[in-house]
From TrEMBL:
This is Coenzyme A biosynthesis bifunctional protein CoaBC. Its cofactor is Mg(2+); FMN. Binds 1 FMN per subunit. One of its GO terms (molecular function) is metal ion binding. CTP binds at residues 104, 114, 148, 162, 166. Its EC number is 4.1.1.36, 6.3.2.5. In the C-terminal section; belongs to the PPC synthetase family. GO terms for cellular component: phosphopantothenoylcysteine decarboxylase complex. Residues 15-224 are annotated as: Phosphopantothenate--cysteine ligase.
Length: 224
């Protein structure tokens, strides 16, 4: 009679997921952002919950919706906000999957008032944001840490160097070269690379199915 529960391989596990873009304020009405829809991260959150995990979904601005009693959604705006929220939860997690498209730069100063237009050119000085994933790689203990890599060239090589540099257990390489893979689409084409640098390519498929592939790989690796 406990059949259904025993088929939930992530029952009792806590999973942190980051999703969506971040917005970096220029002034009260403008920001630097990107085209991430959050679809991939939300699909992963749903799948992790379906496998029985308690999910903490930290999302940048996204129109995605999720309704699942095992998913707690934490909304954030900027890379700094996402960094704080992620560190707040990470210590108690078993798995962390960082799929967010975090801005690499933020304006050095965010104006308090709307910047008025002028005829002169406008320069906005940018500072690098903190790398959330790398910061978790530095402090991780028991956690299984998964990152994403979005590449347009030297994909495998770049993904492997990210995996090593950020001390990950696996990295999901997202190909932008394939039509139908990427930001606003409903499909994705991935290759999962594990920490032994073994590559596992997958077909182009719906983001829901990609999420299942990712979670199945993680479950299989946890059981090793
Ligand atoms: N990431 C993060 N915090 C950042 C930047 C990236 O947590 N400030 C995470 C992303 O969520 C993703 C991984 O790092 O899991 C790789 O992101 P990506 O943009 O592909 O790589 P970067 O390290 O930012 O390098 P670049 O953009 O120069 O390729
Ligand atoms: Ca980046």
């Amino acid at each position: 009679e406990n059949d259904i529960l025993s088929k939930l391989p992530l029952k009792g596990k806590k999973v942190l997921i980051t999703a969506g873009p971040t917005y970096e304020a220029i002034d009260p009405v403008r920001f630097i952002g990107n085209h991430s829809s959050g679809k991939m991260g939300f699909a992963i959150a749903k799948q992790a919950a379906n496998l029985g995990a308690e999910v903490f979904l930290i999302s940048g601005p996204s129109h995605q919706k999720i309704k699942h009693s095992f998913v707690k959604r934490i909304d954030v705006i900027s890379a700094d906000d996402m960094y704080k929220a992620t560190h707040q939860y990470f210590k108690n997690m078993d798995i962390a999957i960082l799929s967010a498209a975090v801005a690499d730069y933020k304006p050095k100063n965010s104006a308090n008032q709307k910047i008025k237009k002028a005829t002169a050119s406008l320069n906005i000085e940018l500072l690098p944001t903190k790398d959330i994933l790398a910061s978790l790689g530095e402090i991780k203990e028991h956690q299984f840490l998964v990152g994403f890599a979005l590449e347009t060239n030297n994909e495998i090589e770049n993904a492997k160097s990210k995996l090593k540099r950020k001390n990950l257990d696996a990295i999901v390489l997202n190909s932008l070269q394939d039509k139908g893979a990427g930001f606003a689409t409903n499909t994705n084409k991935i290759t999962i690379i594990d920490k032994n640098l073994v590559e596992k390519p997958f077909e182009l498929k719906s983001k829901d199915k990609v999420a299942k592939d990712i979670m199945n790989e993680i479950v299989a690796k946890l059981e090793l």
